[in-house]
Write a structure and sequence with these properties.
Elements (H helix, E strand, L loop, with lengths): L1 E8 L3 H12 L5 E3 L13 E2 L9 E2 H14 L3 E3 L3 E5 L5 E5 L4 E9 L3 E3 L5 H5 L5 E2 L2 H4 L7 E5 L3 H11 L4 E5 L9 H8 L4 E4 L2 E9 L2 E9 L4 E5 L2 E4 L3 E3 L30 E3 L11 H20 L1
Helix pairs in contact: 1-2, 1-7, 5-6
């Protein structure tokens, strides 16, 4: 059985940054990237809001650079998935899909969260070509254009009002006749002139061509089918943190996000830390995920020294 000081689970901005800092702290980290090396960021194209890149940076290029930096500093980054884990006592026992077993003195969970989609084939077809689950990430590309946001909660209203400051027109597609958002957010949406709420509507299909999204086909509750012309289609119906494997031992909130102790990355299990979107239901940005990966590595270093 292989024994490691620090095991990092997940290969997005949080995991790679944790690997960089853990390597510099001589923790000899081993990182398993999982099914989606690079994380959710690789589903977008150009990242405009990551500091240090005046003209933006290709998302895959950014993730590849983070990975290469971690490897150069000594991180052992491996392709593969965690099949099972036992956090009941240290050293923590981990089973890999290759059949290998690992004992780890500290574990950093950086498995991220996946955006919820409607499940439409056309939605997947245009993912990254006009379909997005992050207005903050991709809204800039739709300045003075028409877009749609799907959802009726606080997140959808926040996304819609954010996009309204950039776009010519924002359709808010709501499947019911009321918004689930807080009263304050509802008022903000209703008082924003370039937001039009489409009540009692479900999306049947995202329309587009080789250049990307051109519209959406909607079905109203009364049976009416109609199309809207848009350049961007934003999902705001929630995220699903990838935390199920750890929930037997690690405390999570009602939505499955791992709960950490105050401003640290410490979980309720000594020696287990969480970083990135798996513990962040609020910001979900590459830069905040990277920052939390830094904190997790520093916290792990202090723990192992103790």
């Amino acid at each position: 059985m292989e024994k490691v000081k620090c095991l990092i689970i997940g290969g997005g901005p949080a995991g790679y940054t944790a690997a960089i800092y853990a390597s510099r702290a001589a923790l000899s980290p081993v990182l398993y990237e999982g099914l989606e090396p690079g994380g959710q960021l690789t589903t977008t194209t150009v990242v405009e809001n990551f500091p240090g890149f005046e003209n933006g940076v290709d998302a895959n290029e950014l993730m590849n650079s983070m990975r290469a930096q971690a490897v150069r500093l000594g991180a052992d980054i491996r392709r593969g998935c965690i099949n099972g884990i036992d956090l009941s006592g240290r050293p923590f026992k981990v089973n890999i899909d290759t059949g290998d077993e690992i004992e780890a003195e500290a574990v950093i969970i950086a498995t991220g969260a996946t955006a919820k989609y409607l499940g439409l084939p056309s939605e997947q077809k245009f993912r990254g070509l006009g379909v997005s689950a992050c207005a903050t990430c991709d809204g800039f590309f739709y300045r003075k254009k028409d877009v749609a946001v799907v959802g009726g909660g606080d997140t959808a209203c926040e996304e819609a009002t954010y996009l309204a400051g950039l776009c010519r027109k924002v359709y808010l597609i709501v499947r019911r006749d009321v918004l689930r958002a807080s009263v304050a957010m509802q008022e903000r949406v209703k008082n924003t002139e370039n937001i039009e709420i489409l009540w009692n509507c479900n999306t049947q299909e995202v329309l587009g061509d080789e250049s990307g999204v051109t519209g959406a086909r909607l079905l109203r509750k009364d049976g009416e089918v109609f199309d809207i012309k848009i350049d961007g289609f934003f999902l705001a119906i929630g995220h699903h943190p990838v935390s199920e494997m750890f929930a037997k031992w690690v405390r999570t909130d009602e939505n499955g996000y791992i709960v950490t102790d105050g401003r640290s990355s410490e979980t309720n299990v000594p020696g287990v830390f969480a970083a990135g979107d798996v513990q962040d239901p609020h910001y979900r940005q590459a830069i905040t995920a990277a920052a939390s990966g830094c904190r997790a590595a520093l916290d792990a270093e202090k723990f192992l020294k103790r």
